[in-house]
């Protein structure tokens, strides 16, 4: 049985955990002191050795990303932190920043030192006013304490409602003051990112993981997790479970383990389908309870670890309704730049609405899958790909349920049954 | 409304945050909303002038992002998450009941200008589903009844405080100023985390 | 800048090898093989964007295949690359078919009523790449259609495929980001800021490059089917940029003009005036038959023989001179030049129907004729100095070319003038602000190199000493020098010798050997040897009875300074007028001979580079009334033979004239005038003609006129404070001749100066004030 391993979340239960005082109480800003005394390349090597991989979804080795920044090029370098957490099901960075914004700031200082940047930007989504307050105050306190402003500046940039800005090049365009639409790659951000300067874009959790690595060493970090997925990470459990929440555990823990230690699926119900890493990752079912939740394990089972957003749905949930709603989300959030995503999501929604309403024939399922084939891998960025994941995976596992809508002439599910307050008189 | 000399100074300070002025376009749009309530033509032209851009370029940006509003909305803007997980767990029912209760449709504003309603996408609080946002503050674990009470309290001029947020709900304009990066001094208020956020830590301390 | 040898790369596309320069995009390498990959957003002159996804192909490099099809418009060739297009890859073929189906999901079935139908890339590629029927059974996106985004451009958002060619053009080429992509996702749409229409001088290019019928021109809407049009390659007659054009005619009527392709000159662009100002030919009441003035003083219709006889008689009766406007073709100008020398026996000829100076004429002979500065020199320049020249207003393609280098490599631009212009702002040029008339000193103080290019406009001649200073700077620095006149015919007129100090090919009149070469060519014993009179001298001479007859072709006397004297001279002299339409000249002429408009004849213009821009008649003129032919007939009547019965004959003769190899005439050095003392209510006027204004060639183009820049009088902040005026308050500007009342605009302008457009609605400076540059005007609050 894998044990939980709070590192990032270790002191969140203290009432003032978000303050500079509380952070320092637990050794805060000691790691940056240590790192600043090191050669930048040694810091990069340390992070490489730790095996830390990007926690924003793609899992790219963080140290390697830093190593791509050209050195001695006499250009400004930038660190950009992706705090635009918007993938459906994903809810780890937001509570992290609310409970402990200083760990991110310290991570920024270390990362800037490593990549020889003087400027870090934190791009946070705009729909979280109080989180914005906490981060902004933390930055102000860090400046007041002389932690920032002596070599590293951190600027908080607040988004305004666009999921696509979580895509790193769209984020950069947005940060530069443009519409947040993805850029052509190459050039990659490491060569020409923000203001066409070498730039590292990292997720909040990735950067926040760095101080502990610096303090405790690469070996300590490596000792946790699996062969190629090292360290601990935040798993976000939500949906039809007894106890939803954040569970920081070594990579490789299984959903079965998390459910067991947290209290399981809600009483009287059973797991029907779940997402391992947000809505863009192909659905899993109860067949996948023992899949190790690390980058390799989830991929081998046909999905992606993504953001470790474990959305649990029990048997009261209509999968067609769930998928339609996600598809509506992708349609709403498609940036409009490329044809397959823009027009494809427009069309997918219409077909799925018909299917949910029991209109159409089995041939429409074939059309739907063919349409997904024309979007997947044909779009400009991964948003289009993500839009097809719930559709193709749900048809794979629940084809009969789609057919049932057609034979039933509508949705056979009672939507009330799936609500949290069923039986509560709602 | 006209922007005062103080407002212009704030806008200048926002521009100075960035190595390149154009980057300030988003906080400036939030700032315009904090003054005018929505993105007015006056605001667009002012930003264009300050950043040496065409008004069309500012329009292109402002219409891309859903938080920038093209017309006046409520003093309290209520967003009900109807993305899959929240929807299934009650968000759809909450949204339907609020529309009915307030007598407005999606993107509508009550006649008294107090409350506007929007169904929103995932707001990164899935472990608190179903989630309702008001002026982008968290109202966790909502029910149909609690949501109705919330909007009623807004219309009565005494809105219930957020679950995870300051002690008192700020207005749309005040929240917009926060999103423009201005510090309202309320960061220390409210909980550091809700129970679901702390669950893993708690279980770990219990030896799990 | 040294030319570096380009590395060549060989790739295999659909089994065929092709070798292309490094950096070539796959989609264009395929074109080299004749393989057409369908595309919408791709445009060779715009930055790649990869948005439409129509050009997906399979690619492998050194045996490693990309896991998914790639947009061939964004990927440069690489060594070891193997490309499979829709022709050889089923995956690419399906990907393209899939994207086409998606593009059509929201595209309305407007084809039967759409202007683009028949020449529509979407229509064509749907046929070649799509499938016969759509599987889409849902609801299409709808928008209000169409909406005016300016008085001349309409936008149908339903038809738009969001390729962003138009928005990218506006930003990347014209630096006029007045149209943008707005909203998001399926609601994304092209739009303007609601209070600022798409009033770019280059907006028509977006209509031309739109791959669907989303952007249409108001003037051409619903006028024709592409397959009913007869297209003729043509050259633009408006300015000296020298755009290659295409003129489309239906049943003898010009319906539209498009930018032609010439990489060396206009690439694929033109300005809105060139595109949309052509109705003047048909809008005006064209002269159809010759007319002579009868005993009662009325103009009456006459037969050609009768009119020619009267013309010949009158021109022989007393000393005569020739005024030919700057819009004649090279061939026609040559005809006037030859006519003056052979039929009239005089060098009194001047093509400069505008404000002129003797300094300018000497500058032309010394530095302009046979000069070889080109667009390519702009491409290679280390810096550009603009003197008396607003490229965006006065030669828009020169502006686009400078802008291209500015955007590509931050080319340094310096502009000397009194008022900062929009183009100066767009080019982030260094603006050297001087009082009108005091430009010379600023010119002389510039530090240029032999890589620099000086572009001097015709207005430079309006301040004494500027051209002297420009010539001096070019010589001392080794910088390339080019004189950019405003009108299409001026450079050709210079080469043709339609000016008093030059014979064809740049031969100085004062040089006996030069005269002898031309005399031999023209089979005459000798040519007049005294330097001819200039335009203003000719007018003065008429008014003082030294000249009794004028041959006038294509001149508007209101373009001349002191136009009251000009009108008096026309009243006084025996005037033979060759014109297309009634004018201030024809109403005063003794003989009026109707000639062909530019679209009705063949010929050529020499653009500012001296590059020939030849064209054929787009509309046939059954009467064959080129100026040349009529000049030949008058000459015959006068007992002289010009041997220029046809344009072809003139072209052949011109081709035999080699550029003058002898010594060029020298300029006399002219000093700047002292700056006049100004009282508080006085200013020095400065002005230029805007691209879109009251020019006669824009007559009848209401849609085009709707996008002209607003008429204002520009003053400095200091003057505004002194006068107590704010933007929009009215100013009264007066001289001894008259006054104007214009709304004030406070901008970056020299404190001593006042700027107003030279010939815009409400601001016709020559006729109202007889002052355009450097003259003292009185400025008060109206």
UniProtKB/TrEMBL annotation, chain A:
<keyword id="KW-0874">Quinone</keyword>
<keyword id="KW-0411">Iron-sulfur</keyword>
<dbReference type="GO" id="GO:0010181">
    <property type="term" value="F:FMN binding"/>
</dbReference>
<dbReference type="InterPro" id="IPR011538">
    <property type="entry name" value="Nuo51_FMN-bd"/>
</dbReference>
<comment type="similarity">
    <text>Belongs to the complex I 51 kDa subunit family.</text>
</comment>
<keyword id="KW-0520">NAD</keyword>
<dbReference type="InterPro" id="IPR019575">
    <property type="entry name" value="Nuop51_4Fe4S-bd"/>
</dbReference>
<protein>
    <submittedName>
        <fullName>Unannotated protein</fullName>
    </submittedName>
</protein>
<keyword id="KW-0479">Metal-binding</keyword>
<keyword id="KW-0285">Flavoprotein</keyword>
<dbReference type="Pfam" id="PF10589">
    <property type="entry name" value="NADH_4Fe-4S"/>
</dbReference>
<keyword id="KW-1278">Translocase</keyword>
<dbReference type="GO" id="GO:0046872">
    <property type="term" value="F:metal ion binding"/>
</dbReference>
<keyword id="KW-0004">4Fe-4S</keyword>
<keyword id="KW-0408">Iron</keyword>
UniProtKB/TrEMBL annotation, chain B:
<keyword id="KW-0408">Iron</keyword>
<dbReference type="Pfam" id="PF01257">
    <property type="entry name" value="2Fe-2S_thioredx"/>
</dbReference>
<dbReference type="GO" id="GO:0051537">
    <property type="term" value="F:2 iron, 2 sulfur cluster binding"/>
</dbReference>
<keyword id="KW-0001">2Fe-2S</keyword>
<protein>
    <submittedName>
        <fullName>Unannotated protein</fullName>
    </submittedName>
</protein>
<dbReference type="InterPro" id="IPR042128">
    <property type="entry name" value="NuoE_dom"/>
</dbReference>
<comment type="similarity">
    <text>Belongs to the complex I 24 kDa subunit family.</text>
</comment>
<keyword id="KW-0411">Iron-sulfur</keyword>
<keyword id="KW-0479">Metal-binding</keyword>
<dbReference type="InterPro" id="IPR002023">
    <property type="entry name" value="NuoE-like"/>
</dbReference>
<dbReference type="InterPro" id="IPR041921">
    <property type="entry name" value="NuoE_N"/>
</dbReference>
<dbReference type="GO" id="GO:0046872">
    <property type="term" value="F:metal ion binding"/>
</dbReference>
<dbReference type="GO" id="GO:0003954">
    <property type="term" value="F:NADH dehydrogenase activity"/>
</dbReference>
<dbReference type="InterPro" id="IPR036249">
    <property type="entry name" value="Thioredoxin-like_sf"/>
</dbReference>
UniProtKB/TrEMBL annotation, chain C:
<dbReference type="InterPro" id="IPR000283">
    <property type="entry name" value="NADH_UbQ_OxRdtase_75kDa_su_CS"/>
</dbReference>
<dbReference type="GO" id="GO:0008137">
    <property type="term" value="F:NADH dehydrogenase (ubiquinone) activity"/>
</dbReference>
<dbReference type="Pfam" id="PF00384">
    <property type="entry name" value="Molybdopterin"/>
</dbReference>
<dbReference type="Pfam" id="PF22117">
    <property type="entry name" value="Fer4_Nqo3"/>
</dbReference>
<feature type="domain" description="4Fe-4S Mo/W bis-MGD-type">
    <location>
        <begin position="229"/>
        <end position="285"/>
    </location>
</feature>
<dbReference type="InterPro" id="IPR019574">
    <property type="entry name" value="NADH_UbQ_OxRdtase_Gsu_4Fe4S-bd"/>
</dbReference>
<feature type="domain" description="2Fe-2S ferredoxin-type">
    <location>
        <begin position="7"/>
        <end position="89"/>
    </location>
</feature>
<dbReference type="InterPro" id="IPR036010">
    <property type="entry name" value="2Fe-2S_ferredoxin-like_sf"/>
</dbReference>
<dbReference type="GO" id="GO:0051537">
    <property type="term" value="F:2 iron, 2 sulfur cluster binding"/>
</dbReference>
<dbReference type="InterPro" id="IPR010228">
    <property type="entry name" value="NADH_UbQ_OxRdtase_Gsu"/>
</dbReference>
<dbReference type="GO" id="GO:0003954">
    <property type="term" value="F:NADH dehydrogenase activity"/>
</dbReference>
<dbReference type="InterPro" id="IPR054351">
    <property type="entry name" value="NADH_UbQ_OxRdtase_ferredoxin"/>
</dbReference>
<protein>
    <submittedName>
        <fullName>Unannotated protein</fullName>
    </submittedName>
</protein>
<dbReference type="InterPro" id="IPR050123">
    <property type="entry name" value="Prok_molybdopt-oxidoreductase"/>
</dbReference>
<keyword id="KW-0001">2Fe-2S</keyword>
């Amino acid at each position: 049985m894998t044990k939980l391993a709070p590192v990032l979340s270790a002191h969140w239960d203290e009432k003032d955990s978000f303050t500079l005082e509380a952070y320092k109480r637990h050794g805060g800003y000691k790691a940056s002191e240590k790192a600043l005394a090191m050669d930048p390349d040694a810091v990069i090597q340390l992070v490489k050795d730790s095996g830390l991989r990007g926690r924003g979804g793609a899992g790219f080795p963080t140290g390697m990303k830093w190593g791509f920044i050209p050195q001695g090029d006499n250009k400004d370098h930038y660190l950009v932190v992706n705090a635009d957490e918007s993938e459906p099901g994903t809810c780890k960075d937001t509570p992290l920043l609310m409970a402990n914004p200083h760990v991110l700031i310290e991570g920024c200082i270390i990362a800037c030192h490593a990549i020889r940047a003087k400027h870090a930007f934190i791009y946070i989504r705009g729909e979280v006013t109080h989180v914005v307050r906490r981060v902004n105050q933390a930055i102000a306190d860090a400046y007041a304490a002389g932690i920032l402003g002596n070599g590293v500046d951190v600027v908080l940039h607040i988004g305004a409602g666009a999921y696509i800005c979580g895509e790193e090049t769209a984020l950069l365009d947005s940060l530069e003051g443009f519409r947040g639409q993805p850029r052509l790659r190459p050039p990659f951000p490491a060569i020409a990112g923000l203001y066409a300067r070498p730039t590292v874009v990292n997720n909040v959790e990735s950067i926040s993981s760095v101080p502990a690595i610096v303090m405790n060493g690469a070996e300590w970090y490596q000792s946790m997790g699996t062969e190629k997925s090292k360290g601990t990470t935040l798993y976000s459990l939500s949906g039809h479970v007894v106890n939803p929440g954040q569970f920081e555990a070594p990579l490789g823990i299984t959903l079965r383990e998390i459910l067991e230690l947290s209290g399981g699926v809600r009483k009287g119900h059973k797991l029907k389908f779940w997402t391992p890493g947000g809505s863009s990752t192909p659905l899993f079912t109860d067949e996948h309870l023992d899949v190790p939740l690390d980058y390799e394990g989830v991929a081998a089972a046909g999905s992606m670890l993504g953001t470790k957003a474990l959305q649990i749905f029990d048997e009261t949930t209509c999968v067609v309704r769930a998928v339609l709603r996600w598809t509506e989300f992708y349609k709403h959030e498609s940036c409009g730049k490329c044809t397959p995503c823009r027009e494809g999501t427009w069309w997918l929604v219409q077909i799925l609405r018909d299917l949910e309403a029991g209109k159409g024939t089995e041939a429409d399922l074939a059309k739907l899958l063919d349409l997904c084939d024309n979007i997947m891998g044909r779009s400009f960025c991964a948003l289009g790909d993500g839009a097809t994941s719930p559709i193709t995976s749900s048809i794979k596992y629940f084809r009969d349920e789609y057919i049932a809508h057609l034979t039933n002439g509508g949705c056979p599910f009672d939507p009330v049954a799936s609500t949290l307050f069923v039986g509560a008189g709602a | 409304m006209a922007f005062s000399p103080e407002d212009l100074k704030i806008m200048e300070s926002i521009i100075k945050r960035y190595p390149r002025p154009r980057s300030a376009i988003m906080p400036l749009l939030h700032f315009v909303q904090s003054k005018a309530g929505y993105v007015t033509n006056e605001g667009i032209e002012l930003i264009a002038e300050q950043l040496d851009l065409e008004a069309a370029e500012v329009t292109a940006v402002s219409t891309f992002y859903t938080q920038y509003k093209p017309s006046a909305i409520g003093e309290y803007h209520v967003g009900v998450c109807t993305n899959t997980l929240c929807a299934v767990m009650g968000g759809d029912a909450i949204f339907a009941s609020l529309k009915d209760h307030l007598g407005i449709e999606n993107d509508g504003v009550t006649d008294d200008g107090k409350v506007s309603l929007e169904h929103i996408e995932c707001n990164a609080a899935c472990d608190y589903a179903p989630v309702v946002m008001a002026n982008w503050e968290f109202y966790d674990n909502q029910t149909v009844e609690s949501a109705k009470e919330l909007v009623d309290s807004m219309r009565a001029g005494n809105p219930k405080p957020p679950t995870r947020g300051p002690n008192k709900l700020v207005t749309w304009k005040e929240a917009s100023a926060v999103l423009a990066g201005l510090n309202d001094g309320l960061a220390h208020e409210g909980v550091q985390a809700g129970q679901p956020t702390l669950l893993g830590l708690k279980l770990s301390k219990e030896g799990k | 800048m040294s030319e570096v040898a380009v590395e060549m790369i060989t790739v295999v596309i659909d089994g065929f090898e092709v070798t292309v320069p490094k950096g070539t995009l796959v989609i264009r390498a395929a074109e080299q093989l004749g393989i057409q990959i369908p595309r919408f957003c791709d445009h060779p002159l715009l930055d790649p964007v990869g948005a439409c996804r129509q050009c997906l192909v399979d690619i492998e490099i050194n045996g490693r295949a990309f896991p998914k099809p790639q947009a061939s418009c964004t990927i440069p060739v690489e060594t070891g690359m193997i490309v499979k297009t829709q022709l050889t890859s089923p995956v690419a073929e399906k990907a393209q078919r899939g994207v086409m189906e998606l593009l059509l999901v929201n595209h309305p079935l407007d084809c039967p009523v759409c202007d683009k139908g028949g020449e529509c890339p979407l229509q064509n590629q749907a046929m070649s790449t799509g499938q016969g029927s759509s599987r889409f059974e849902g609801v299409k996106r709808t928008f209000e259609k169409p909406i005016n985004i300016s008085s001349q451009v309409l936008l149908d958002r339903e038809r738009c495929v969001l390729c962003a060619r138009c928005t990218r053009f506006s930003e990347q080429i014209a630096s006029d980001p007045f149209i943008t992509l707005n909203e998001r996702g399926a609601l994304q749409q092209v739009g303007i800021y609601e209070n600022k229409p798409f009033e770019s001088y280059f907006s028509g290019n977006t209509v031309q490059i739109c791959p669907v019928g989303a952007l249409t021109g108001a003037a051409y809407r619903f006028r024709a089917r592409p397959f009913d049009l007869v297209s003729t390659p043509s050259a633009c007659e408006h300015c000296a940029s020298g755009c290659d054009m295409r003129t489309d005619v239906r049943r003898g009527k010009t319906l539209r003009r498009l930018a032609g392709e010439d990489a060396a000159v206009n690439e694929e662009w033109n300005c809105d005036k060139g595109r949309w100002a052509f109705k003047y030919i048909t809008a005006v009441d064209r002269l159809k038959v010759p007319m002579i003035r009868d005993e009662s003083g009325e103009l009456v219709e006459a037969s050609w023989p009768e009119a020619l006889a009267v013309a010949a008689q009158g021109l022989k009766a007393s000393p005569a001179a020739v005024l030919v406007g700057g819009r004649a073709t090279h061939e026609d100008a040559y005809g006037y030049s030859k006519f003056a020398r052979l039929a009239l026996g005089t060098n009194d000829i001047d093509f400069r129907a505008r404000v002129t100076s003797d300094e300018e004429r000497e500058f032309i002979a010394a530095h302009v004729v046979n000069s070889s500065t080109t667009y390519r020199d702009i491409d290679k320049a280390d810096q550009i100095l603009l003197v008396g020249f607003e490229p965006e207003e006065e030669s828009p393609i020169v502006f686009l070319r400078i802008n291209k280098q500015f955007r590509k490599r931050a080319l340094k631009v310096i502009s000397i003038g009194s008022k900062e212009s929009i183009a100066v702002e767009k080019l982030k040029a260094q603006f050297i602000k001087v009082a009108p008339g005091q430009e010379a000193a600023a010119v002389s103080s510039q530090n240029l190199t032999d890589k620099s290019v000086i572009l001097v406009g015709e207005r430079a001649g309006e301040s004494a000493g500027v051209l002297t200073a420009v010539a001096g700077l070019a010589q001392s620095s080794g910088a390339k020098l080019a004189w950019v006149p405003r009108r299409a015919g001026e450079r050709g007129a210079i080469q043709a010798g339609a000016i008093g100090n030059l014979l064809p090919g740049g031969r100085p009149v004062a040089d006996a050997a030069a005269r002898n070469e031309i005399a031999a060519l023209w089979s005459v014993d000798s040519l007049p040897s005294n330097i001819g009179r200039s335009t203003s001298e000719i007018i003065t001479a008429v008014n003082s009875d030294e000249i009794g007859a004028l041959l006038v072709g294509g001149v508007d006397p209101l373009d001349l300074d002191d136009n009251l004297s000009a009108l008096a001279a026309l009243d006084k002299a025996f005037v033979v007028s060759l014109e297309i339409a009634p004018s201030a000249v024809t109403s005063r002429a003794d003989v009026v001979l109707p000639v062909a408009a530019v679209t009705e004849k063949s010929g050529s213009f020499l653009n500012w580079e001296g590059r020939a821009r030849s064209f054929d008649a787009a509309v046939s003129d059954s009467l064959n009334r080129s100026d040349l032919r009529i000049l030949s007939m008058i000459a015959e009547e006068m007992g002289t033979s010009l041997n220029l019965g046809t344009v072809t004959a003139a072209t052949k003769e011109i081709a035999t004239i080699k550029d003058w190899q002898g010594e060029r005439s020298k300029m006399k050095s002219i000093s700047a005038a002292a700056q006049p003392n100004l009282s508080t209510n006085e200013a020095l006027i400065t002005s230029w003609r805007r691209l879109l204004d009251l020019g006669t060639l824009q007559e009848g183009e209401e849609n085009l006129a709707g996008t002209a820049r607003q008429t204002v009088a520009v003053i400095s902040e200091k003057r505004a404070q002194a006068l107590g005026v704010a933007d929009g308050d009215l100013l009264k500007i007066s001289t001894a001749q008259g006054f104007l009342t214009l709304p004030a605009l406070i901008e970056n302008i020299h404190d001593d100066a006042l700027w107003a457009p030279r010939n815009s609605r409400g601001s016709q400076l020559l006729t109202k004030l007889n002052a355009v540059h450097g003259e003292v005007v009185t400025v008060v609050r109206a």
